[in-house]
Write a structure and sequence with these properties.
Layout: H1 2-11, H2 14-22, H3 33-46, E1 50-57, E2 60-67, E3 76-82, E4 101-102, E5 107-109, H4 117-132, E6 141-146, H5 157-161, H6 164-169, E7 171-176, E8 189-192, E9 194-203, E10 207-208, H7 217-240, E11 251-259, E12 271-272, E13 275-284, H8 290-301, E14 308-314, H9 335-346, E15 355-357, H10 363-368, E16 373-375, E17 392-394, H11 395-414
Parallel strand pairs: 3-6, 3-7, 7-16, 8-15
Antiparallel strand pairs: 1-2, 2-6, 4-5, 5-17, 9-13, 9-14, 10-12, 11-13
Bound molecules: N-formylmethionine and zinc ion (2 copies).
One zinc ion binds near residues 150 and 386.
């Protein structure tokens, strides 16, 4: 009966497959990578893709799916996404974050709906549709699922790029995640900002809470915080004046402060601490000079003359192997860019001016190898909800994204094929 047919469709459709993936809780701090990988493997088998699991770290496998091209000697196309998500606070959501509820107006609510389980499944759906049309790729297509992007990728992409297995993939071009666009144009990213963790520590004389003296640890730390706030303001002013995008300046944001001994009774707080520290999230655009910032930190933010020490935690590369900033060219000197642009236009899509991503993704490890990579998630006319409460994606936007990837995959995998 028609009703049974509809039931059948609801049982297995692009949307239900997406919901299935979203219901696997891969949020930190305990991502269920095993369940996610076994689900994706079962999907890959339907699509007759080759599967390879790489385990550089126990319980943090990387899944590689491969659709061999008719000319496997050409550099391959790699479609990347990460398996993990950031945590969610269920009490602050309108629907549970791992139920993937679809509302009457088609919104699918889930942690990971935008970041980035959408693209992980859209790649597969696009391949499924191309296979149904008997499309044959010239270049080999790899679909990759990596752990730990959200926590820096040290056990994911950092290990993968250093491996023989990666070298053998002979990757020529990579598509990785981007960000949603509230407007009518798709956004595309040619670079990320580099993330530093900065910890500054102050030491000073301890003493009775009633005393006034110079060079206390708190005073020294607070002076630094003031200086850093001024710098932050100077960068933010440039953004507010419309002279640069958020992602084109250096951001410095305090993320924790630690000092003192809270009073057990809440009444007597009479200890001035001898140590105080603060942690900052620092992001550098590829155009920034890291050495200049290091000098500023040493001279102004945590000077030894104020009894201060500091630690910079550099999370990944900042220059490629030839010493150049990690940027993928978005002009016609990069043929992949031209193919990318044309494939978007071919499905009626408009592209916004290419941007630097304000945050950081695994693409930096790829660009470090000198491999061109674009950040792109086909979501437009939707709020940017990555890492936010009530993250959602609309069903129609998701389905349209599959069409966009069909165009991208067929164009990218055919590029250079005719001349050979
Ligand atoms: C230290 S790398 C951290 C990567 C992370 N990525 C997504 O949010 C980010 O904070 O941008
Ligand atoms: Zn992401
Ligand atoms: Zn994220």
């Amino acid at each position: 009966t028609p009703q049974d047919d509809r039931y059948q469709q609801e049982q297995d459709s692009p949307i239900t497959r997406f919901q299935h993936y979203l219901r696997i809780n891969t949020a930190h701090p305990n991502p269920n990578y095993t369940a996610a990988i076994s689900f994706l493997k079962s999907q890959a088998q339907h699509h007759h893709l080759q599967t390879l699991t790489l385990e550089f770290t126990p319980n943090k496998s990387i899944l590689l799916l491969t659709w061999p091209g008719s000319n496997p000697s050409l550099p391959s196309i790699l479609l990347n996404s990460h398996l993990d998500s950031v945590p969610a606070e269920p009490s602050k959501w309108v629907h549970p974050p791992f139920a993937a509820v679809r509302s009457d107006d088609g919104k699918i609510f889930a942690r990971g709906a935008q970041d980035d389980k959408c693209i992980g499944m859209q790649y597969l759906e696009a391949i499924r549709n191309l296979q149904a049309e008997n499309f044959v790729p010239v270049r080999t297509i790899h679909v990759l699922y990596v752990p730990d992007e959200e926590i820096g990728g040290l056990d994911g992409w950092a290990k993968l790029v250093a491996s023989r297995e990666f070298e053998e993939l002979n990757v020529g071009f990579v598509l990785d995640e981007g960000q949603a666009s509230p407007g009518d144009e798709f956004r595309v990213f040619y670079a990320d900002r580099s993330p530093w963790g900065l910890v500054i520590k102050a030491k000073g004389m301890p003493g009775h809470g009633s005393r006034m003296f110079d060079n206390g640890a708190m005073e020294n730390l607070m002076k630094s915080v003031e200086v850093m706030s001024k710098f932050r303001e100077s960068q933010f002013d440039v953004v507010k004046a419309g002279l640069a995008a958020n992602s084109e300046v250096i951001s410095v944001n305090p993320v924790y402060m630690k000092a003192g001994i809270p009073s057990p009774t809440g009444f007597v707080m009479n200890m001035q601490p001898s140590e105080a520290e603060a942690g900052f999230d620092v992001r550098l655009p590829p155009t920034a000079d890291p050495d200049l910032l290091k000098k500023r930190i040493a001279d102004e933010w945590a000077p030894a003359t104020r009894n201060m020490t500091y630690q910079i935690i550099e999370k990944g590369p900042i220059r490629d192997y030839t010493g150049r900033p990690l940027m993928t060219l978005t002009n016609d000197s990069n043929p992949w860019w031209s193919v990318f642009k044309q494939a978007i236009t071919a499905v009626g899509g408009k592209l916004a001016k290419p941007e630097i991503l304000p945050s950081t993704t695994d693409a930096r490890f790829i660009r470090q190898m000198g491999i061109p990579a674009l950040g792109f998630s086909p979501m437009k006319n939707i709020p940017i909800l990555l890492h936010d409460h009530n993250e959602f994606l609309k069903d129609t936007i998701y389905l349209n994204g599959i069409k966009v990837y069909e165009s991208l995959i067929s164009s990218l995998s055919s590029y250079g094929g005719a001349s050979l």
